[in-house]
């Protein structure tokens, strides 16, 4: 729908930003599409929306056909009059967009998996089958929506899942070690399993130490490996690359070549848990001369410039390709010139595309401006006003606990 030509229609569905994707189920608005903006991601998402919330399985052939899938499967086995079946179906209706559900009312289908009358099993995809973990996991609690949700969350991925562009946000909520190589379960299943088994043999000994593990296709994350970790295809092109990224944004790379016996990965993990690894920080070079009114900050100098405990600092995060940043530049420079003689204030800028943005600064678009007050560097304040000189000055007057020196004259608080 072209919202410039059909504004009333778009307003009726809450379209305020574009593009907006909506899902309709049987002619009824079923909510906004919030899945990945890729062809594969959209197809994957819509397949999960099609059909019943939970597929009824009548035979062993039905069961095997359902669980023999690229994605995990959650299957409930219940007698027809079981109190757990309605609760299972309720969970399937709520979670169907994320997971695949099926159920059976034939107790015989569950007996090969040590089920007597009823129960729920999570089946991992056959492509991820490994001798280092079971292919299925039994849900042992009373069937409730909340309990099933926790069970799926804790067991869905197993010891070493396949990290993709679609599931990366869910997997990266924890401290995560990722091994990247030419992984492709469709075109190269043997090679994909070979390296994953080498990884699992090592990481299975570290599974209880608070670090999660994954394998990924190196080509899918090539730009990320190059830009965020300083790794490229030229480095050990045939061998896996290894990174660790924590929830706090700390990054580590394994510089030793990956050995087939896993010894290099084991040494890397031992050094990580011993605190011996040096963090990788993406940073431009620290400028030799930095005497202009707007101070240039890079990742390696952020602590020395912005986090000076006795200085108020206004820092702009920008992109060289951003037209809004270019428009702001003369205003920001004039602001810095007017406040250049203030001994307690620094006006700074950082190219957020070439440097890691520190924790605590949420930079999703450009330009983004933060004020880091003296004595409260762990509580930066985001600037939300217009990009006019007078409004920037007003913001600094309001947030600073000390009088500004504007054009050489100290202002009143």
Q: Classify the helix fraction into a percent range.
A: 25-40%
Write down the overall mean pLDDT. Answer: 92
| Rg calculated over all Cα atoms | 27 Å
Structural class: alpha/beta
Largest sheet: 5 strands, mixed
- What would the principal axes of the Cα set say about the shape? globular
Q: Runs with pLDDT <50, length 5+?
A: none
Strand percentage, roughly?
15-25%
- Total number of helices: 12
Report, as a whole number of angstroms, the end-to-end distance: 53 Å
The largest sheet has its strands arranged as 3-5-4-6-7
Secondary structure: number of strands: 19
Structure, explained:
This protein has 12 helices and 19 strands. It has helices at 7-12, 39-49, 60-67, 84-95, 145-155, 168-171, 189-203, 222-229, 263-273, 302-305, 323-338, 389-399; strands at 22-25, 28-32, 55-56, 73-77, 100-104, 119-123, 136-139, 162-163, 176-181, 212-217, 241-245, 251-253, 294-296, 312-318, 345-351, 368-372, 381-382, 405-406, 409-410. The two termini are 53 Å apart. The mean pLDDT is 92.
Concise structural overview:
This protein has 413 residues and is of the alpha/beta class.
Helix-strand blueprint:
Elements: H1 7-12, E1 22-25, E2 28-32, H2 39-49, E3 55-56, H3 60-67, E4 73-77, H4 84-95, E5 100-104, E6 119-123, E7 136-139, H5 145-155, E8 162-163, H6 168-171, E9 176-181, H7 189-203, E10 212-217, H8 222-229, E11 241-245, E12 251-253, H9 263-273, E13 294-296, H10 302-305, E14 312-318, H11 323-338, E15 345-351, E16 368-372, E17 381-382, H12 389-399, E18 405-406, E19 409-410
Parallel strand pairs: 3-5, 4-5, 8-10, 9-10, 13-15, 14-15
Antiparallel strand pairs: 1-2, 4-6, 6-7, 9-11, 11-12, 14-16, 16-17, 18-19
Helix pairs in contact: 4-5
